[in-house]
Write a structure and sequence with these properties.
mainly alpha; 11 helices; Conditioned medium-induced protein 4; about 70% helix; 2 domains
Amino acid sequence: MDEQTEELRDLFVETTGEETVTEDQSEDRGDLGDAVSAEEAEARVRELVGRMRERYEFQSGLDDGDLVRVVTGFHAGEGDAEIADALETDEGTVALARLDLHLVREGDREAPLSMDDLRELIVADVPLEERVDRLDADAEAVERYSRVIEAERRATRANHRFTDEFAELLTDADLRDSHAADARESGLEEAAEDIETNTQL
């Protein structure tokens, strides 16, 4: 399915509330409303990572298995340092990997320069060195926050489909496989079931 077809499908789903468009298109993206185990979710995350690698030029140098760990760690609430320790790499590599995968933290936007001005320069296709001059900012900072904005732009052009699918797969799997027992033991079973019912597609 090409990008335009996927965008039309997303619009159809939002407008009608129906998941089925054609058998081929539905099969390509999958019905994320279906219950999946943690193992199935991880396998589908790996498929999404592979699709992203085919579509984008990744910068981090991590392999697909490590990138899956970045995605799962991000959605488990781990910081870059924790993920880096698990992968025996450095935080900078993990941050690059997150941005490759369109996973932007709120802290990534906390810049010592105007992100709005930087975004305008990027949209205008102004070279990096000229961005540094125009913003009168540290070159390393401009490069770092340019990567954040570029990741956000890629995610927007993709209608956030990859980040949305990561979130839905891993949130659903984590709630079912990791937290359901704890919720029952703490007397929150009924509330959890209500939330699950309300969030089904």
